[in-house]
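Backbone-to-sequence.
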């Protein structure tokens, strides 16, 4: 028996998307107008009916197609691409765009503090 998750387990995909959006089951339940136990049942279900899937779509802010096609590997690759772009000097999500030298600014503050202390 394989320990890998099944690729078409819709409930697990919903759970992972919810976690990536930093949302708890209670928050998703509130957005859908239901309770946490119902969300737990949805996330444990391999197949979710279309009506519930549309409700989840609206609450999570992602399309049904995105839920159906979601994979952890694709999400990891997406974030790796963002990180790689930032390391190559392009404008990635984590690019550092400082226009001043931090050490120079620190020394300016130290000098200013000395002047204030001397007064």
């Amino acid at each position: 028996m394989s320990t890998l998750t099944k690729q078409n387990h819709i409930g697990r995909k919903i759970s992972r998307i919810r976690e990536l959006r930093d949302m708890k089951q209670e928050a998703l339940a509130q957005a859908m107008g239901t309770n946490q136990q119902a969300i737990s049942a949805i996330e444990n279900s391999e197949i979710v009916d279309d009506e519930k899937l549309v409700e989840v779509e609206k609450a999570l802010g992602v399309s049904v197609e995105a839920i159906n096609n979601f994979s952890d590997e694709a999400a990891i690759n997406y974030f790796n691409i963002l990180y790689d772009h930032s390391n190559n000097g392009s404008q990635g999500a984590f690019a550092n765009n400082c226009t001043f030298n931090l050490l120079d600014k620190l020394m300016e503050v130290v000098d200013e503090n000395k002047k204030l202390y001397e007064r």
